[in-house]
Amino acid sequence: MRRGKFITLEGGEGVGKSTNLQFITGWLRDRDIAFIQTREPGGTPLAEELRELLLCNRDEAVDPTAELLMVFAARAQHIARVIEPALARGDWVICDRFTDATYAYQGGGRQLDRTLIAQLEQTVQGDLRPDRVLLLDLDPQTGLARAADIGAADRFENEQLAFFLRVRAAYRERAEAAPESYAVIDASQPLEQVQRQLQTELERLVLPTSE
Ligand SMILES: Nc1ncnc2c1ncn2[C@@H]1O[C@H](COP(=O)(O)OP(=O)(O)O)[C@@H](O)[C@H]1O
Ligand SMILES: Cc1cn([C@H]2C[C@H](O)[C@@H](COP(=O)(O)OP(=O)(O)O)O2)c(=O)[nH]c1=O
Fold first, then answer.
1. pTM score of the predicted model
2. Is the minimum distance from the CB of 12 to ligand 2 under 6 angstroms?
3. Is the ipTM of this complex over 0.90?
4. What are the coiled-coil residue ranges (predicted)?
5. What is the C-alpha end-to-end distance of the chain, expressed in Å?
6. Best residue among 154, 155, 160 to mutate for probing ligand 2, ranked by most atoms within 8 Å of CB
7. What residue ranges define each of the domains in the chain, with the CATH number in brackets?
């Protein structure tokens, strides 16, 4: 059985992840490609509980290393219970955020040591890396304005602009360092253009498996 493709969707707040996830899953459905859609933090009952703990606003200041370890605890569970089994049975995995978000939010935003993140990545993931990271890139002012209309702000959304500027810079840095693994899509474009680019990326991914 050929392994499925592992695709992650990344970007700051309000870049259009939810909107474009629907587009991506619709595209896969139209082509009868078996897939699962999941998200991080989350994707299993335990990991969703950890997500709640990570996102809820609280009076106690959260130590950045504690935050980082919780993110990877959720990820370990998600990989073992959901992601690996799906890929092994040949399903594609479409994941709303993954480890690039850790480099961006805990590395960039919280300014944690990237070496520590890389060590945890290695321990928790082994060789598992996304086949392609779809990075929706947008200036945080625009993204936060878009997100402001949707629900109450969680613990991350309540951060200052400087935090989100570091998040964006960290994402872009990672994409620039390994362009073969990333598709950087300008999310300030009209949705139609964003989705045209997403479609081109998906078509590229499907080619080798349809020989
Ligand atoms: N390319 C775009 N141009 C303008 N508005 C957009 C675009 N993409 C998404 N939006 C709008 O921005 C808001 C946030 O989008 P959403 O998909 O919920 O973002 P996220 O899941 O990244 O927070 C929604 O109101 C959505 O309709
Ligand atoms: C996966 C991941 C997410 N996060 C943060 C980024 C987001 O602010 C938050 C997840 O929320 P998000 O994916 O934006 O969901 P929603 O659109 O429903 O708010 O978790 C990290 O800080 N590190 C990580 O490794």
1. 0.97
2. no
3. yes
4. none
5. 15
6. 154
7. 6-210 (3.40.50.300)
Q: Confirm whether residue 109 is marked as ligand binding.
A: no
Please write the tens of the pLDDT for every residue from 47-98: 999 999 999 999 999 999 999 999 999 999 999 999 999 999 999 999 999 9
DSSP label at 189?
S
- One-letter amino acid at 16 equals G
Tokens 């945890």 locate to 120
89-125 pLDDT, tens digit each? 999 999 999 999 999 999 999 999 999 999 999 999 9
Question: How many whole angstroms from 2 Cα to the centroid of ligand 1?
Answer: 34
Residues with Cβ within 6 A of ligand 1? 13-19, 146-147, 150, 187, 189-191, 194
